[in-house]
């Protein structure tokens, strides 16, 4: 800190003597009074500067307290956001796992549906072959009865025809049973497709 204007300690030490040649040099009263006034003024100036410094220090201390309070609040907010971020990350990972699980399940069901479709097509083809074979056998049987009409008696011919009709009814009944089973398989396939549709929509939504 610089010395107040008008104060010089050297002036207080190097006092101009009143008279030369004496053992003790006495300063002039006016000079001492002037220097005293300057010292008093310097003291007042120093006191004012000290008050200003104290005032500034108090303000700085208040600002520091405010900054510490804000820092504490921001730290709390930061911790809350970190916790929220962890929760969201966990939920995101769970959603991803659910989506992967749904996709795997849908893939298995699609493979199963494709297998059912293939089995149904194979069954239809088999039924078609059996029907063609039956029709061929029936046609051969009818032709055989026609060729043997002259050999068998009317009574015998009627028995053979009745037996052929009975065989035909049995084959038709077996065919109806197979067709009923095929219809039931188609219904089960439709039900599985309907059950799969909401899960497929949910998986697409997760993506």
Question: Explain this structure to me?
Answer:
With 207 residues, this protein is an all-alpha fold. The protein is built from three helices and no strands. α2 runs antiparallel to α3 (154-206). The longest helix has 119 residues, at 29-147. The protein is rod-shaped.
Kindly list the characteristics that best describe this protein:
207 residues, disordered N terminus, 86% helix
Give a brief outline of the structure.
The chain contains three helices and no strands. By secondary structure, the protein is mainly α.
Query: Structural class, from secondary structure content?
Result: mainly alpha
Describe the oligomeric state of these chains in a short phrase: single chain
H/E topology pattern:
HHH
Basic shape: rod-shaped
- Mean pLDDT across all amino acids: 78
**Rg, nearest Å:** 59 Å
Number of helices: 3
Strand content: under 5%
């Amino acid at each position: 800190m610089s010395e107040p204007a008008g104060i010089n300690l050297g002036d207080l030490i190097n006092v101009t003597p009143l008279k030369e040649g004496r053992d003790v040099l006495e300063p002039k009263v006016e000079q001492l009074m002037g220097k005293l006034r300057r010292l008093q003024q310097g003291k007042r100036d120093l006191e004012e500067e000290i008050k200003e410094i104290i005032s500034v220090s108090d303000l700085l201390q208040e600002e520091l307290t405010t900054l510490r309070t804000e820092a504490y609040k921001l730290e709390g907010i930061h911790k809350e956001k970190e916790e929220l971020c962890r929760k969201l990350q966990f939920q995101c990972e769970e959603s991803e796992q659910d989506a992967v699980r749904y996709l795997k399940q849908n893939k298995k069901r699609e493979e199963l549906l494709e297998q059912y479709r293939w089995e149904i097509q194979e069954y239809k083809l088999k039924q078609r072959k059996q029907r063609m074979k039956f029709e061929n056998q029936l046609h051969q049987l009818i032709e055989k009865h026609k060729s043997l009409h002259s050999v068998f008696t009317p009574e015998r011919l009627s028995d053979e025809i009745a037996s052929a009709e009975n065989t035909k009814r049995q084959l038709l009944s077996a065919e109806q049973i197979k067709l009923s089973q095929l219809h039931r398989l188609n219904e089960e396939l439709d039900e599985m497709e309907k059950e799969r549709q909401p899960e497929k929509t949910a998986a697409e939504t997760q993506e």
